[in-house]
């Protein structure tokens, strides 16, 4: 199984801390899977101009092809102005409309305060649904108080990250079984 952990911002440390912890949990619990961390701060990504994602070059092509080849994507995003950052939106714009068809997508979200917890429901999930993702319904929301010196200090958050990783992997496995049964119906 190919899993991409996407740190969807080029600034700040909380989202990167959260996604690195997620990758650590994935590596410990599911070492047999191919796990790729895409930290947008480490790449130079072109703005979407409407081309097919295969027509881009360099980092942009690498990121889009890696996402398209994944079975699951765990998106780490901060909350900026009660929405997702432009860097993450640009990634969505670079991909085709059906980019997440047959893919499982889950979310790890950071924000300065609890006031932004609905951003996932009102901003992120509608985009993912439009792009045909199988969305893991629960997500992990973290705020300023859950971090100290670039570490997650809230044990409940750590437990919820473990559960999110497990739910993501189990959903991919369940969808594979469903696809096999569906393919068997066709008889060829």
UniProtKB/TrEMBL annotation:
The keyword Oxidoreductase applies. One of its GO terms (molecular function) is FMN reductase (NADPH) activity. It comes from the Bacteria. InterPro entries: Flavoprotein-like_sf, FMN_Rdtase-like_dom, NAD(P)H-dep_FMN_reductase. Residues 1-144 form the NADPH-dependent FMN reductase-like domain. It is an enzyme of class 1 (oxidoreductase). Its EC number is 1.5.1.38. Keywords: Flavoprotein, FMN, Oxidoreductase. This is FMN reductase. It comes from Mesobacillus stamsii. The lineage of its organism: Bacteria, Bacillati, Bacillota, Bacilli, Bacillales.
């Amino acid at each position: 199984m190919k899993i991409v952990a996407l740190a969807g911002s080029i600034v700040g440390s909380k989202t990167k801390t959260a996604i690195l912890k997620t990758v650590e949990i994935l590596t410990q619990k599911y070492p047999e899977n191919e796990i790729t961390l895409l930290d947008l701060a480490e790449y130079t990504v072109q703005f979407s101009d409407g081309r097919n994602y295969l027509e881009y070059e360099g980092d942009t092509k690498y990121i889009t092809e890696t996402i398209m080849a994944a079975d699951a994507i765990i998106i780490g995003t901060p909350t900026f102005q009660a929405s997702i950052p432009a860097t993450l939106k640009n990634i969505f714009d670079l991909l085709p409309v059906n980019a997440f068809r047959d893919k499982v997508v889950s979310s790890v979200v950071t924000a300065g305060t609890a006031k932004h917890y609905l951003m996932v429901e009102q901003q992120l999930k509608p985009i993912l649904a439009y792009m045909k993702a199988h969305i893991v319904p629960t997500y992990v929301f973290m705020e300023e108080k859950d971090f100290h010196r670039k570490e997650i200090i809230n044990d409940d958050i750590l437990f919820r990250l473990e559960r999110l990783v497990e739910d993501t992997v189990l959903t991919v496995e369940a969808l594979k079984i469903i696809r096999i049964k569906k393919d068997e119906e066709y008889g060829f």
